[in-house]
Amino acid sequence: MKLDQIALAIVALYAIMWIGLVVTGLLVAVPFGAIGLIPLAVVLGLIITVIVQRVRNKEDDYYDKNVDK
Which helix (H) or strand (E) holds 45? Predict the structure, then answer.
């Protein structure tokens, strides 16, 4: 593995742990903490949508591989 892939994996692991802690903290503060789950769900949905669109975009893949080399 390259160093950048290892660093990305570590950042992703900490992000997942942080989200878990945020959700746990919000659920402890029920009923008012449950309101905080809505913006968290929206942000996660947007992040997932952006990642899926980037992975499926063939044009960006072409330019990443063939331009500026």
Answer: helix 37-56
